Every structure is written in structure tokens, then in C-alpha cells.
Amino acid sequence: MPKYRIATDDFEDYSDLTPEAAPGRPPKTKHVPKKSQNAVLDKIVEATGLEAGFHPTYQPAKYEKVWLLSSLGTFYEQHLISDVLALVKGGKEATVYRCQAYPESGLDLVAAKVYRPRQFRNLRNDKAYRDGRQVLTGEGRVVKETDTRIMRALNKKTAFGEQVAHSSWLLYEYTTLQKLFAAGAAVPEPYAVSDNVIVMGYIGDRTRAAPPLHEIVLPHREAKQLFEETLRNVELLLQQGLVHGDLSAFNILYWEGRITLIDFPQVSAVYSNPNARFFLERDLRRVCEYFERYGVRSDWQALADKFWEQYGKPEYNDEYLLEFNE
Fold this sequence. Notes:
single chain; alpha+beta; Phosphorylase Kinase, domain 1; Transferase(Phosphotransferase), domain 1; five-stranded antiparallel sheet; two-stranded antiparallel sheet; 9 strands; 14% strand
């Protein structure tokens, strides 16, 4: 999929420099303004080659339209997504859209999580999550020391290196979803991935996406059961050698009596991230505090100690480490 970069000087406002404007100075050639901002954006939309065939129901603003066309075009051409129906959620680093799938895909509605470029993301402290974490290529392969071109670009933080780091951040979410879904976790099923988009299972219906727990009043009779289901998923993550790292009522969806955990780009490895235990304790504290308002009593510290004693030892994660490096 071609990438497009809008040069900032295309939008600069130039003044006409004339002898009257600068008395006593030699006459200067009158400047011909560059193309307007809208003209530049029109050119980019035209360059995607999708405008004639891809007319989404959802009507984005001009900037968003360009980003959507260039981001989702691959999935349109591959007959996975046929329409963008609505914007579901705008988050710290990505926007989620409700999309119509092509009938031949065997799917109905899917969610497209479109990541913003790194410079426009609002997540500032991702270094703590990246600690001890290997870099993944766009194919999901671990970057090794022998990949000298990639390592040099990462160390020098070139444009290519930044793109590799951005893709790696996204690929960790996609590969984590694959592992967890296969293990029976309550997560969306991942269908496809590109440089800045993950297409996954959609939770909700055509009029409303599943809300996060913090937006609803949970039926009391379901609270204990859903609390236990949340702990089951925390343990499934640990069994994969992982900690969610940002788990709370903001990224646990509720729909028709069931929960779904979302948002995994910051997932941290138990075996190598020195912050993993802190992340686990924070996840459990947030979860326990939320369910406590519904009368579900628990001790988050005791739960964290129990889980860490069972899954936090390096020898437990040796098998996972070997599997991930294959």
C-alpha cells in the first residue's frame, strides 16, 4: 500500500514581496503561491485510486478521509471490507470503525482499528511497556541482531526505524489477539493486519457498539460471574507469558451478559519486562476496585501475589520464550 507524506511547506502562507512592501530594496519576483491545502489533499485522494469505487457510508472530514482511504484501501481491494458504516471510538492512539464485510468473506460486521502515525499518538509513556520487548517486523518476525539494516535504523531513529517501531507496536496487539483467541480468551477474533490497521471481530450490533464497563450500570446479579471471567482472562494472559498492562473498566466491553477484553498494544512480557509485576498489580487493583462497587469483595494484592508466584518465575516462561523466537 503506498504511503503519502504531506510536506509542511505546502501549507505555508506566503506574502507578496513588492518594492512598496519593502522600500529601498531591490524589486523581487512576485511569488506564485503553492497549491492550497485542499488541492494537496485532493491530489492525495486521487492518488489512492479508490475514490471512484469506495464511497463509504460514514462521511469523514477531509483529513480523516485521506487517512481512511489510504489505510483501509488494501482491505477494500482484497474484498474484506466493503463499507465503513460508522466511527465507533476515538482513543489515545487509534480510531475504531464499524465496517461492513464482503459477503464472500463469511463475515457480517467487522471492526477496523486504524492507528495514527506515531507523531500524532497521545500515548507518551510507551517506553515502560517496550522494556525487554523484542521488535517485530511487518511480517510478525522477531528482529535479530543480524538484521543490520533494521537495527541500524532503529538505533539512529531514522524514518524507516520509526516505522518499524510503529509496526512492531501494532503487531504485538495482533499477535497477542491471535494467541489469546486460540487459547479461548474473551477477546475479538483477529482477521487481518497491515502497517497501521487491525481488522478484528466487532462486538455490538448495527446501531451500537458494545460499551465499556465504565459507561454502564452493570446488573448486580452478573457482577461476580463477570469478575471471575475477568480473572480467568488475566490468568490466560499470564499463561502466555504476558500482562495486559492497561486493564480497567475502560477497555472491558459488555454486551448481552458477556465481557470482551480489548486494547493490547502495550502488552508486556512477564519474562523480560522489569515493570511486569507492577503492571499486573495495577491491572488487578483497577479491576477489583471496579467490581467492589457491586459488592464483589476481593483482595487485589493477594491475587497479584498468587498469580506472580505461579506464573512470574523465569523458568515458567522458558517455553513461551522459545516459541516466540522461532
